[in-house]
Amino acid sequence: NANSPPGPRPHGILGLVPAQPGPILLLLALVSTSVWNLRWTPCTRQGSSAPAPGSGSTIFALSSGQGRCGIAVIRTSGPASGQALRSLTAPRDLPPARKACLRLLRDPLSAEPLDRALVLWFPGPQSFTGEDCAEFHVHGGPAVVSGVLQALGSVPGLRPAEAGEFTRRAFAHGKLSLTEVEGLADLIHAETEAQRRQALRQLDGELGHLCQGWAETLTRALAHVEAYIDFGEDDNLEEGVLDQANSEVRELEVALGAHLRDARRGQRLRSGAHVVVAGPPNAGKSSLVNLLSRKPVSIVSPEPGTTRDVLETPVDLAGFPALLSDTAGLREGVGPVEQEGVRRAQKRLEQADLILAVLDASDLTSSSSHDFLHTVVIPTVTGSASASSQRLLLVLNKSDLLPSQGPDLHPDLPRYLLLSCLTGEGLDGLLEALRKELAALCGDPSTGPPLLTRARHQHHLQGCLDALGHYKPAKDLALAAEALRVARGHLARLTGRGGTEEILDIIFRDFCVGK
Ligand SMILES: Nc1nc2c(ncn2[C@@H]2O[C@H](COP(=O)(O)OP(=O)(O)OP(=O)(O)O)[C@@H](O)[C@H]2O)c(=O)[nH]1
Ligand SMILES: [K+]
Ligand SMILES: [Mg+2]
Q1: Which of 33, 249, 312, 440 is the most buried (most CB within 10 A)?
Q2: Would you say the CB of residue 422 lies under 6 angstroms from ligand 1?
Q3: Which CATH fold would you assign to the domain 271-442?
Q4: What pTM was estimated for this model as a whole?
Q5: What is the pLDDT of residues 157-208, one digit of tens each?
Q6: Superfamily covering domain 58-173
Q7: ipTM associated with this complex
């Protein structure tokens, strides 16, 4: 055929040729092996690669609270757990795995009976720590508990556990990731409903999974960039591979940025939002603090200038944790002590997440009310006060003193809530408004993305984002690949897969013994 293009003629009957490894195949092979080498063992959730500190020994501790109680739980973890169970119980055989059995407990040395107790046997790795574990559910009297602890101490190979050691072993055996460990610690310390919900979500591994998804994106991008470095010049790569990596990295930057903008919320939920009660003297600030905290935290008196220092008290406000601060009434031209109180009040106001501004509803036209309205309330509400996004609720207190037609309406008065600390009228409305404000400040732990509950999380996400800022493949591919590696390292440290001993020490120190 005269019109055939020049070049090698097709072979074979149908003109088919044996396939050469084409660019796409080559890329697939390359990426899959690179990903394999780069990826952190994705399915088997491993903790730090280092062995559990002190593993080999068997630890024991009282895991329920201290003090007299109905039932106390004592547990052991480590290879000698089975031996410990056998030496304390009669009959001496191990109970079936994970089934509660009633046994007589005896001191192994003196054979003296200690208690009749439920015992449980959890052979590793199907246990909380991944090691052989035993539990003794004994009667909660102090003499029983100390008797059993002493008996366990006499079993060879057993020693008392350090604070957080059970959880540390669980982490070391890949039973929990680092963010899950933090979730567990928070669950133990949760004091409000919102904190509990947040801690449970973190214990379920939501934050860890999110980070792992991000890390996999980075791993993929890194594999693509490295493929380009190695093979790009040979023209063997499918077009658009680098473009795809670029767009994935840019999308990741947007996601990280959005998460970081929310960062303070998770921390507020964990340690409490700062709610500062402020206003002119005698508005009823201390009365409100006492009402919200349901105890007489602050002195209340008809004398203006009663509160001088900042008084801080942790409270559960509508299910959210808050640090409530009572402050001195803001006014000028007073003695040096009260002036210092006013200075402290102003300083505390600057640090507030939420300002509860209190005015006397029957005294809106006084100069101190007017000053407070114009120097604090209106500038904060209109957002002209500062760059920070403080929130404010205006409360007009002493509504019981108002004539029936309500307060003298002030033209510049922003949206307000009427309250009487004396009769309690308006308290429900105020609590509902507080709930909304705190949900906005802390994030709603029932919905929405997992929150960053610790400064550590924020630090590593910011580090990751900063590293991605150096990802400029058009300029220098090698530097771009390095930027991706640094970014990935930050995510690894967040979930503990790149964990250094120091981070672990800090985190596990927060645990109680027996957890
Ligand atoms: N009628 C009425 N009196 C109230 C109400 N709330 C507070 N008071 C009274 O107002 C006075 C001042 O209350 P405080 O709570 O001490 O006011 P404060 O704003 O903390 O005052 P300073 O600390 O001096 O700035 C007290 O005599 C309270 O009993 C209210 O709702 N109705
Ligand atoms: K007062
Ligand atoms: Mg006061």
Answers
A1: 249
A2: yes
A3: Rossmann fold (3.40.50)
A4: 0.61
A5: 999 888 788 888 988 888 888 888 888 888 877 877 778 877 777 777 778 8
A6: Probable tRNA modification gtpase trme; domain 1 (3.30.1360.120)
A7: 0.99
